[in-house]
Amino acid sequence: MSDPVFPRLALIGIGLIGASIALAACRSGAAGHVAIHSRTAKTLERAEELGLGDSYHADPADAVKDADCVILCIPVGASGTATEAIARHLKPGSTISDVGSVKASVIAQMALHLPADVHLVPAHPVAGTEYSGPDAGFAALFDNRWCILTPPPEADPAAVARLVDFWSRLGANVETMTAEHHDLVLAITSHVPHLIAYNIVGTAADLETVTQSEVMKFSAGGFRDFTRIAASDPTMWRDIFLNNREAVLEMLGRFSEDLTALQRLIRYGEGDKLYDLFARTREIRRGIIAAGQAIEAADLDRPHGKDDDEAG
Ligand SMILES: NC(=O)C1=CN([C@@H]2O[C@H](COP(=O)(O)OP(=O)(O)OC[C@H]3O[C@@H](n4cnc5c(N)ncnc54)[C@H](O)[C@@H]3O)[C@@H](O)[C@H]2O)C=CC1
Ligand SMILES: O=C(O)C(=O)Cc1ccc(O)cc1
C-alpha cells in the first residue's frame, strides 16, 4: 500500500458519507490516523463500536488538532457553525473540505470563518443512498462514482492535487468545476428529481379516493422507486433546497413549463409527440448506462480498481 495522502484525517460528522470515507480511507490507506467527531455522544459511541476510526472526540477542536485534512460530513446548513467551532484550531497549511450536495452556499459559509493559512477545497462525492447514520456507511460507496471538486480560483494547486489523489484512492473519478456550475447541474440531475419524489409520494398519500393500504399494496412499479428516494434524510434535503434555492427554482420553472406542454399533448391526444419524447428519453437512459459501463471497464486497468481492493 502506498503512503497515506493525509497522515492525519479528521471527519466532522459520521453519518452515511463520513462513515463511508472512514472505511474507504482505511481500505485504501489514503489516510493514516482517522480522527472522528460527532455532535451527539450516541453517534460517536456507535462509530467507535463499528471501529470506523482511530480516535473519537466529543470536542471538534480536539478532532482537528494536527490534522492534515479536515472534512465536514454534515448537513449543508450546518457548515458555517461547524467551521466557526474549529477554525482557530486548524493546522496552518492543512486542507479543509466538505462533502455537501450544494457548493456555493457552503463555500460562502465556510470562507467567512477560515484563517488565510488553511486551504479550502470543497468536494461533492456524487454517490449515496437513502439511508443515514454511521451504520449505513460502506467502503465501496465511491467506487466508480464521480467526486466533483469546486476549488475557488485562488486555491493552492498542490492542495487541490492532494484532494484529487485522496478521492481517487477512495475509488472515485474526480472532476473539477466552479461551484456555480456544480449547483446548476446538480439542481436538475439530483435536487429537482428528489423534489419530484417527495411531491408525488406526498400527493399519493393525501389522495382521498385512494387509501393508505392501496398505496402500499400497488406500489410495485415506478411509484416504489419514488418512495425509495422520498425516504431520504429530511434534514439533509431541507438544507439542500434552502441552500440551492436559485438554481432549483430556475430548473423547476423549466420543468413546470415542460410538464404543462406534456399535459396539453395528453389532453389533445397527440400520441406521435408523446411517443417521440418517450423514445428520446429512453435513448438518454441507454446512454447513461453505456457511459457507466465504459467507466467501469476503464477502472479495471487502474491501480485502485475493484480487483486490487478485493485482493487487499
Ligand atoms: N446521503 C447521500 O446520499 C449524500 C449526502 N451528501 C452530503 O453529505 C453530507 C452528509 O450527509 P449524510 O452522511 O448522508 O448524512 P447523515 O445524516 O447520515 O449524517 C450526518 C452527520 O452530521 C451530524 N450533524 C447533523 N446536524 C449537525 C449539525 N447541525 N452540526 C454538526 N453535526 C451535525 C449528524 O449527527 C451525523 O453524524 C450532507 O451535506 C449531504 O448533502 C453527499 C452525497 C450523497
Ligand atoms: O440515493 C440516491 O438515489 C441519490 O441520489 C443519492 C445522492 C444524494 C445526494 C447527493 O448529493 C448525491 C447522491
From TrEMBL:
Enzyme Commission numbers on file: 1.3.1.12
Pfam families registered for this protein in UniProt: PDH_C, PDH_N
Domain Prephenate/arogenate dehydrogenase: start-end pairs: 7-296
One term of GO molecular function: NAD+ binding
InterPro entries: 6-PGluconate_DH-like_C_sf (IPR008927), NAD(P)-bd_dom_sf (IPR036291), PDH_C (IPR046825), PDH_N (IPR046826), Preph/Arog_dehydrog (IPR050812), Prephen_DH (IPR003099)
EC category name: oxidoreductase
This protein's name: prephenate dehydrogenase
Alphabetic keyword roster: Amino-acid biosynthesis, Aromatic amino acid biosynthesis, NAD, Oxidoreductase, Tyrosine biosynthesis
Family per record: Belongs to the prephenate/arogenate dehydrogenase family.
GO BP of this protein: tyrosine biosynthetic process
Pathway: Amino-acid biosynthesis; L-tyrosine biosynthesis; (4-hydroxyphenyl)pyruvate from prephenate (NAD(+) route): step 1/1
Catalyzed reaction equations: prephenate + NAD(+) = 3-(4-hydroxyphenyl)pyruvate + CO2 + NADH
Annotated source species: Bauldia litoralis
